[in-house]
Write a structure and sequence with these properties.
Order of helices and strands: EEHHEEEH
Helix content: 25-40%
Shape: globular
Number of strands: 5
Largest sheet: 3 strands, antiparallel
Number of domains: 1
Strand order of the largest sheet: 2-1-5
Radius of gyration: 16 Å
Structural class: alpha+beta
Oligomer: single chain
Number of helices: 3
Amino acid sequence: MLRWTIRITYTTGDSFSSYTAVDELGVSWANLDVAKQALAWIKDRTDLENERRDFRSTMTHDDFAARLKALPCAPDEYYDVCMMVPLDDGTAHHISTFWLGYFERLHNAEIVPVGDHAVETGMKYVP
């Protein structure tokens, strides 16, 4: 059975250097529509973080927390470092927002087939 996950491409590093990294969320979905919903939640969370980081922003920490709590991806705790994503069974699961750290910047997030299914479906070539 084909399953889907989300691959995150982002810049990370430290005060002295940076590099591009690619990681998957560690969550997978059988239902592609639920994976698309998770991708939309990632977009909402990342857009809010980018708005807070904008040098022209006047958003306070309390403003950020209030706006985040209004989103469906808002976790009950650790909202600076994690978020929720929907699961196939209708519940939601905590994930790390590893692409939103001090040195991190998101390049893209994409829904991809899990494992060898990418090769089997013709959506990936591995020499």
